[in-house]
Design brief:
The chain has helices spanning 11-22, 34-40, 55-60, 77-90, 102-110, 119-132, 162-165, 167-171, 206-212, and strands at 3-7, 26-31, 46-49, 68-71, 94-98, 115-117, 136-141, 146-152, 174-180, 183-185, 199-205. With 215 residues, it is of the alpha/beta class. The chain is elongated and about 55 Å long. It starts with a strand and ends with a helix. The relative contact order is 0.10.
């Protein structure tokens, strides 16, 4: 279990924060908007109404002790940049920052963001992948070569254990989680059986994952 601080609880930030909580992680959500904070107060581990560009506040909240910071401030580019600088200086090991455009992204990279995301652009990629394949539910590009996908188990996969499928040895594909109804198995083993309607969260080379869709 990791500890995350999510700064900015708009549509993107709240989605990231709530999903991290559902995965069992500790999440601190920070936003200036009281309504947003109140809405998530019973979902996230901790929520705070506050200004992430206030260095004293960030230090008092113990932000330096978190594993990952997600800077998802909306339209205020200056606040996004200042918050990223402060978090970097405080010493958070890994920073993910939301960018509004390419210029904003370049600035965030230069001031120390470890990963810059473009939610609208990446959502377009996911929608395109969903449209061309009925059994891909979600898609995250890790690099030009590697991706993570959520794939509905096909007929050829069901009724077999992960050990029998041997996806890692045969295709270099790692099954990092299994979803069945509302239950998530975050550490599936060789004896776990794939059932009808299971969702496999897999990681590997994009071209190999594309081939897995039809198996």
């Amino acid at each position: 279990m990791k500890e995350f601080v999510v700064i900015g609880l708009g549509r993107f930030g709240s989605s990231v924060a709530t999903n991290l909580c559902r995965m069992g992680h500790e999440v601190l959500g920070i936003d200036l908007n009281e309504e947003r904070v109140q809405r998530l107060s019973n979902i996230l581990t901790h929520t705070v109404i506050g200004d992430a560009t206030d260095e004293d506040l960030m230090k008092s909240l113990g932000v330096r002790n978190f594993d990952v910071a997600v800077v998802s401030i909306g339209e205020d580019m200056q606040a996004s940049i200042l918050a990223t600088i402060i978090i970097k200086d405080i010493g958070v090991p890994y920073i993910v920052a939301k960018a509004l455009n390419d210029l904003h992204g370049k600035v965030l990279e230069k001031i120390g963001a470890d990963r810059v995301v473009y939610p609208e652009r990446e959502m377009g990629q996911r929608i395109a992948n969903n449209l061309v394949s009925t059994n891909i539910l979600d898609y995250i590009e890790l690099s030009p070569e590697y991706s993570i996908m959520e794939i509905i188990a096909t007929k050829k996969l069901t009724g077999k254990t992960l050990g029998q499928l041997n996806l890692r040895a045969l295709y270099g594909i790692n099954v990092i989680a299994l979803k069945r109804d509302k239950h998530i198995n975050a550490s599936p083993g060789a004896n776990d059986m794939i059932q009808v309607d299971d969702i496999l969260i897999v990681m590997g080379k994009r071209d190999v994952l594309e081939n897995l869709k039809s198996k």
